[in-house]
Predict the structure of Olfactory receptor.
Amino acid sequence: MSASSASIINTSVFILTGFPGLDQYYPWFSIPFSSIYAVVFLGNCLVLHVIRTEQSLHEPMFYFLAMLALTDLCIGLSTVHTVLGVLWGLSQEIGLDACISQTYFVHGLSGTESGVLLAMAFDRFIAICNPLRYTSILTNNRVIHVMVAILMRSALSILPVIIRLKFFHYCRPHILSHSFCLHQDLLRLACSDIRFNSFYALALVICNLLLDAVLILISYVFILHTVLAIASREERLKSLQTCVSHICAVLVFYIPIIGLTMVHRFGKHLSPFVHVLMGNIYILFPPLMNPIIYSVKTQQIRSRIKQWFSLKLK
């Protein structure tokens, strides 16, 4: 073992990884990544501002959308300093406590986003399958309770494995696979007994992300059944149109997660570049696409944004 490797092992500092073998291109990579983060921040802030200022958007569907935008904004804030720090050549080092904190926010916010997408699916289910009782079922108090439950589930369920990361012995070289910290990445470097973390993390994925995905799918089975029973073709299209944005957001969230999981599980022979690329897609693609999807596909938000720009151009 080299002296440099020994020093990495014997400290609580971890080394973040950009794109292996492409260090000389980091200044070029930093341009699109900086642009993506700028769109993430501006796009989600714009959606939040529209919902806050437009009185007609003060209803359950847009409250959930505001929570989704806030979650995406926080995901960007939790990773921007390490991702751009590596690409800008500022620092590739991160302390154990900072790494564990980032791991908590990355995975916790991912669980929050999954819960919000489930709540939005329930909102569409009530709006289409039981429209006459929509306002009586989704009252403001119930919406607040759902939001609090989503936050509590995400914040508390992941704590046991996050706390244990602090007490692990990391005897392998402290070189991470991404430019941000992930739970499975830290487990790979630990020489302690990681069985609890491995099984508990798997149970969380099954009970949270997988269960949410199954419930979203079931809700759309009922929605489709109700829509197909509508006699008018125009009314069927109108009903389905209200679900397009949410369906796109669900695909944008779950496809990168599935891809990253498959790469970590079955892609050990793949180039490290693929692992890094999938990790960045997992982190950045949903926060980037969600404000674009809802700005284009949601008529109320689209018209409000057009109105603002037309006033500024006059």
Q: What stands out?
A: Confidence is low (pLDDT under 50) at residues 1-10. Residues 96-129 form the longest helix (34 residues). The first strand starts at residue 13 and ends at 15. The beta strands are 13-15, 93-95.
